[in-house]
Design a protein that fits this description.
This protein has seven helices and no strands. With 141 residues, it is an all-alpha fold. It has one domain: Cytochrome c-like domain (Cytochrome Bc1 Complex, Chain D, domain 2), CATH 1.10.760. The chain is globular, with a radius of gyration of 14 Å.
Length: 141
Amino acid sequence: MLVTTRLRRLALAMGCALLAPAASLHAQSNQADGKASITVDAEKAKAGAALWTARTCAACHTIGKGVTIGPDLAGVLERRERAWLVRWLKEPDVMLRADSTAKALLAEYNNIPMPNLSLTDEEIEALLHYIAQESAKAGTR
């Protein structure tokens, strides 16, 4: 029973985490290479923090505190392109079937898939601002 509960929490949190790192396509970018670096908007980050808690992202992810069940999201905005992150947060189930990076992450994290949390564009952007804010606190963007 404990294992089942943890797996459910993990699945929900993975949706937030790798996620956690996506912003809308029209969000501000600081890099010409398409990476998702953004200038943090405090209000959006606050909304993202509420989503992070409500969607139990911390059950599987941290931001700057190391790997748990899922990846540490510190600096994810520097490692992934914005369009990839948006799509990942929008439809991880689709990406897990076709995207090589998504498949590699699945394999790396014990084949525990990120669930589709049906996030809106606004929620995705808020999560990205929160992750950017917390990454900066951790010493990475």
